[in-house]
Specification:
It holds the Pfam family MFS_1. The chain has 529 residues and is mostly helical. Helices cover 80% and strands 0% of the residues. α2 runs antiparallel to α17.
Length: 529
């Protein structure tokens, strides 16, 4: 028989103040944000210092999220069994120690090993902070606490990008790991004073399910990372890993349906609130990822802004997330969940549409200000509500597993945004560029050759391009200009497609989401499988 799902509280409220618990979890969450995003900002510096090839740097950047995916569902299940605070402290300690080793790492190979372990450690941090908030704080404080948690993490992500760049430029990339060490020590101190929580009924651990989930998620996430190139799904290696992921996850579902104590209850997945929460996570994180990722590339390649300038451009998104989260409690009390979801999706849609309308060769910070504010505000409301939907549908016995599921779906949505937006931009840009030059009478073979070079570097040396294809420097500049226009139009088109995805989600929420019905079903025991 499968586990039944209830929303009955299994623990008494601890004496520790809610504020202490919340801020302990927020600081641990900031530690995770720093560790998960650090390599994306210091990768080039590592490559220069350790003489790493591009392939090694690429592995370093993606390895954390891959090993995180492998361990996250198992981390949630183990925490429910052996104690959420205990496992969270182990994760925080491991991330801190690994960051210390990274400071002194002599080779890129050693750093790859460290980052792989850091991803596993992160799996014991990110989902467990949310689980602890769910279990230890009163239900009336959930909306405010979750909104504040997510808003501050978005703000810390934006600010940390600037701080990391400044430290990297001033003291070198090794010094940036000191941020993780300091935050880890602070998190350990804060967490040591909060109460422990775990499932009251000690059930066997589903090790087969944990292993199958780890293999399946690694295959899926790593395959999507490999596909995030202009080659896309024509990359056989990427296709192989994605296929491995789907097959293994299929085996996981079969195993869970026959297991008495599954690591991921299928009865839980059947709850309407969980299904809608996962769908919201998938599409919202996809749309957000498409907008922020492609805007970042546009700023650094098309407008030739530095990484530090790019981080400053994106700050309105982070600050809007934080400011809106301060009013989350009042919003939840005043409006029902459905109205808030529709409103947040409309705000996000307006922001992404604003990016599409304002993007151009002469765009400045002020053109992006209002769209990024809308996206940031909409994202924090939608994410707060979808996390609440998933967490409230689970009993406190399953808080760790429910939080892990929420994180997994969000990670998949983020990975899909990078893959599909990269593929679509490459495809649309190539088609527009080819069509324009064919109209000018340029031979198809010459177009394909120049396209190969231009997709590698948007701003090649014009003299080299001219020498390679037997044309003048003036003609080379004209070709690059055509490609730049094609690239710009393709990014705009991807923004519109992201807005369309949000519109579809908005219609689904409007016509298929009934908060009272979902709440009633989530509060009742599910029938056994």
């Amino acid at each position: 028989m499968s586990r039944s799902i209830t929303t009955t509280r299994a623990f008494t409220q601890p004496a520790t103040s809610s504020t202490r618990i919340l801020w302990a979890c927020i600081i641990a969450g900031i530690l995770f944000v720093l560790d998960s995003t650090l390599l994306s900002w210091i990768g080039p510096a590592i490559a220069r210092d350790l003489h790493a090839n591009p392939a090694s740097v690429s592995i370093l950047s993606s390895l954390f999220i891959v090993t995180l995916a492998a361990a996250i569902l198992g981390a949630g299940a183990l925490a429910d069994r052996y104690g959420r605070k205990r496992l969270l402290l182990i994760g925080v300690t491991a991330e801190t120690l690994l960051a210390t080793l990274a400071v002194f790492t002599p080779t890129v190979g050693a750093l790859v090993f460290i980052r792989a372990l850091a991803g596993i450690a992160g799996a014991f941090v990110s989902p467990l902070t949310i689980a602890i908030i769910r279990v230890n704080l009163p239900e009336r404080e959930h909306a405010r606490s979750m909104g504040l948690y997510l808003g501050i993490l978005n703000l810390s992500s934006g600010l940390s990008a600037i701080v990391i760049q400044l430290i990297n430029q001033t003291f070198g990339w090794r010094s940036t790991f000191l941020l993780i060490i300091l935050m880890g020590l602070l998190a350990w101190f804060m967490l040591s004073g909060i109460p422990e929580s775990s499932a009251t009924e000690q059930k066997p651990i589903d090790w087969r399910g944990i292993i199958l989930a780890g293999i399946g998620l690694v295959g899926l996430i790593y395959g999507l990372n490999l596909a995030a190139t202009p080659r896309g799904f024509s990359n056989l290696e990427a296709d192989g890993f994605i296929l491995l992921g789907f097959v293994t996850l299929g085996l996981l579902i079969w195993h869970e349906s026959t297991c008495d104590h599954p690591v991921l209850s299928l009865a839980f997945l059947r709850l309407p609130a969980v299904q809608m929460g996962c769908l919201i996570a998938l599409i919202v994180l996809f749309a957000q990822g498409c907008a922020i990722f492609q805007l970042t590339l546009y700023l650094q390649t098309y407008l030739e802004r530095s990484p530090l300038q790019t981080a400053l451009y994106l700050l309105p998104f982070a600050f809007a997330s934080y400011l809106v989260c301060l009013f989350m409690d009042q919003l939840v009390r005043r409006f029902n969940r459905k109205v808030l979801l529709i409103g947040s999706l409309l705000i996000m849609l307006a922001g992404i549409a604003g990016l599409a309308l304002t993007l151009g060769p002469d765009s400045t910070f002020w053109h992006f200000l209002l769209p990024l504010i809308c996206i940031g505000g909409g994202v924090v409301i939608a994410n707060t509500l979808r996390v609440q939907m998933i967490m409230d549908a689970a009993s406190v016995e399953l808080a760790g597993e429910a939080s892990a599921l929420s994180n997994i779906v969000a990670d998949i949505g983020g990975a899909l945004s990078i893959v599909l937006s990269t593929l679509l931009v490459s495809l649309f840009a190539a088609q527009a560029y080819t069509r324009h030059l064919l109209q000018l009478g340029v031979l198809r073979a010459h177009i394909d050759s120049s396209l190969t070079l231009l997709t590698k570097d948007l701003q090649p040396t014009f003299a080299n391009l001219g020498d390679q294809y037997g044309i003048s420097e003036f003609q080379a500049k004209a070709i690059v200009g055509i490609y730049e226009q094609a690239y710009l139009s393709s990014v705009v088109l991807v923004f519109w497609l992201s807005a369309l995805a949000l519109l579809v989600l908005l219609l689904l929420v409007a016509f298929l989401f009934y908060p009272h019905k979902h709440k009633k079903r989530a509060s009742c025991k599910s029938s056994p499988l």
